[in-house]
Specification:
By secondary structure, the chain is α+β, with helices and mostly antiparallel strands. The protein is built from 15 helices and 23 strands. The chain is globular. The structure holds uridine-diphosphate-2(N-acetylglucosaminyl) butyric acid (EPU).
Length: 462
């Protein structure tokens, strides 16, 4: 099974659930561009659903079977965290895991892992729900500007928790040992705060009403997961969610939705290279905003029951894109679509509507010949018709995906460094692309500077 290179920065020994090669190798991707993509790709389970559902499994008494789990380093780390807390974690097959949290307890052994990933903030909600108290680190670092968690904290306080933040730790305690229901209005539409409060409220006493919530597909997926384990959550997918707290959650089996952003990345890749790809195991409704934008740019997108077919033969056209919370165009597709627009005729404008600073990758695209001017949240892209291969780095997960899209359509060879970011969120991207005709290979080189690898693992996003 695929291994993960930087799992154990700061951990005394290698305890990965999957085979692990340690941190003494650096992986790079080498892409010889210019090959159209043809064939079929299977989309894995949704990363951002998985990283919420694994912490939520801590609230369940009994065995919780999670199916369609993506094999990526973020899910690996979260399962390791549960395991360090005393959960029994058993793989039935690579995409199915049984998690039994009957004997979990708080533990400071998890801290070296929790500070590596963004989604560890969901442990605040799940620990409070399970134990009436929580102790974890601040989540992984910020790669695109300030990433506050004030709305998470506001929610937990409204549910009756006192919270202390200091020396990199977040400690929380529910008055009387159990959270209670509350009415909470989010000042900012936040995926993370919506999820965290839903998790915590699932076993709180009484009714919680959360207003101005996010509506992403993985929020509905988390609600469905919790409901299938005995929770009582209504309204997920609208902007008001009502959670009637239950005493306990019980075991069960749940299959994750497919990954909207992984699918969108392959759709954009074939629009960039030309060719025809059938992208299987998707929910086409979740992809509508991406499909519509790709059609506008010049690709043909046909929807089936659980697949989409994307073809591109002719020219690409300029377009304007504004990222917004769901059902708007996803911010997690912004670097990939910007890359595609470099190949189009004319000038395009991309506006980032979610994050303050998500254009770090533009410097890398410029090394490949892109002409992009960034001012604040706006990028102006002069379509130049083609990109040229170059050595580049993956600044973060989706920036890395954009480098792959760029490398696939560029003339010549592109070498992408820091692919550890990409492997956090894309299951076997090299194997999947090779199977549809891409000339891409992962190479490993010994890391001469062991500390460098650790630093990269801690400077995380997601
Ligand atoms: N915000 C606040 N206060 C908060 C929380 C968020 O002001 O307490 C602001 C943020 O600064 C941002 C906006 O609200 O401007 C939206 O942030 P959100 O909380 O929705 O983001 P998140 O939950 O931290 C998740 C995904 C991101 C994705 C965003 C937006 C996970 C683990 N991460 O982050 O995914 O970009 O939602 O859709 O689910 C990725 O997968 O590459 C990725 C970065």
């Amino acid at each position: 099974m695929k291994l993960l290179t930087t799992l154990h920065a700061g951990m005394g020994k290698k305890t990965a659930l999957w085979q692990n090669r340690g941190s003494d190798f650096l992986d790079k991707y080498v892409i010889r561009g210019g090959k159209p993509l043809y064939g079929e790709v299977e989309i894995s389970g949704a990363k951002n659903a998985a990283v919420a559902i694994i912490p939520a499994a801590m609230m369940v008494d009994g065995v919780c079977r999670i199916e369609n789990l993506p094999q990526i380093s973020d899910t690996d780390k979260l399962l390791q965290i549960l395991s360090l807390m005393g959960a029994k974690v058993r793989f039935i097959n690579p995409g199915t895991v049984d998690v039994d949290c009957t004997s979990v307890r708080l533990s400071n052994r998890i801290f070296s892992l929790t500070k590596q990933i963004r989604a560890s903030y969901y442990l605040i909600g799940s620990m409070l729900g399970r134990f009436g108290e929580a102790c974890t680190t601040m989540p992984g670092g910020c790669n695109f500007g300030v990433r506050p968690i004030d709305q998470h904290i506001k929610g937990m306080k409204a549910l009756g928790a006192s919270i202390e933040i200091g020396r990199g730790l977040i400690q929380a305690k529910a008055a009387g040992g159990r959270l209670h229901g509350a009415r909470i209005y989010l000042d900012k539409v936040s995926v993370g705060a919506t999820i965290n409060i839903m998790i915590a409220a699932a076993t709180a006493e009484g009714m919680t009403i959360i207003e101005n919530v996010a509506r992403e597909p993985h929020i509905v997926d988390l609600a469905n997961f919790l409901n299938s384990m005995g929770a009582d959550i209504r309204g997920a997918g609208t902007d008001v969610i009502k959670v009637r707290g239950v005493q306990k959650l019980h075991g069960g089996a749940y299959s994750l939705i497919p990954d909207q952003i992984e699918a969108g990345t392959y759709m954009t890749a074939v629009a960039a290279t030309g060719g025809a790809l059938k992208i299987n195991n998707v929910i086409p409704r979740h992809l509508e905003c991406i499909s519509a934008k790709l059609r506008e740019i010049g690709a043909d997108v046909q929807e089936g029951g659980d697949f989409v077919v994307v073809r591109r033969e002719g020219a690409l056209y300029r377009a304007n894109v504004k990222t917004q919370p769901y059902p708007g165009f996803p911010t997690d597709m912004q670097p990939q679509i910007t890359t595609l627009l470099c190949l189009a005729q004319g000038t395009s404008i991309v506006t980032e509507g979610v994050w303050d600073n998500r254009y770090r990758y533009v410097n890398e695209l410029r090394k490949m010949g892109a002409e992009i001017h960034v001012s604040g949240k706006t990028a102006i892209i002069e379509g130049i018709g083609h990109l040229t291969g170059a050595p580049v780095a993956a600044c973060d997960l989706r920036a890395g995906a954009a480098m792959i899209v760029a490398g696939l359509c560029a003339e010549g060879t592109t070498v992408i460094e820091d692919v550890v970011y990409i492997e956090r969120g894309y299951q076997d991207i090299v194997g999947k692309l090779r199977a549809v005709g891409a000339d891409i290979a992962a190479i490993s080189e010994p890391d001469d500077e062991p500390d460098g690898n650790e630093n990269r693992a801690l400077d995380d996003v997601g």
